[in-house]
Design a protein that fits this description.
This protein is of the alpha/beta class. The chain has two helices and nine strands.
Length: 107
């Protein structure tokens, strides 16, 4: 069920089957669903609510609220060189890091 004046962002997925049963998602009026959102049913998105792009929504969102449900980005520096040594990705990273350090004056 999708209410009036609601926008569903590109690549949104309605996840409604748990392997045995289909569940319902209810989206209120004037809701904005961010792109690439997964709505894991059963879930209700209240009138005027928003979801942030890339979120996995597993709980009801109250009217007028913004739901953000995604992990914070973590950068693991040097991962490619440690885990994929000798790969084209590692060579590219080495070259890029060498160029960057060559352009940085020594202190």
């Amino acid at each position: 069920e999708i209410g009036a004046d609601t926008n569903i962002g590109a690549a949104t997925v309605f996840v409604n089957f748990d392997g045995e049963n289909k569940h319902r998602t209810v989206i209120g009026d004037s809701v904005r669903i961010g792109s690439d959102t997964m709505l894991v049913a059963p879930v209700t998105i209240g009138d005027g609510a928003y979801t942030a792009a890339g979120s996995v929504i597993t709980e009801d969102v109250p009217p007028g609220a913004m739901a953000v449900a995604r992990a914070r980005q973590k950068i693991i520096n040097g991962w490619v060189q440690r885990k994929r040594p000798g790969s084209s990705s590692a060579r590219a990273a080495d070259a890029a890091q060498g160029s960057a350090s060559a352009q940085t004056p020594d202190e």
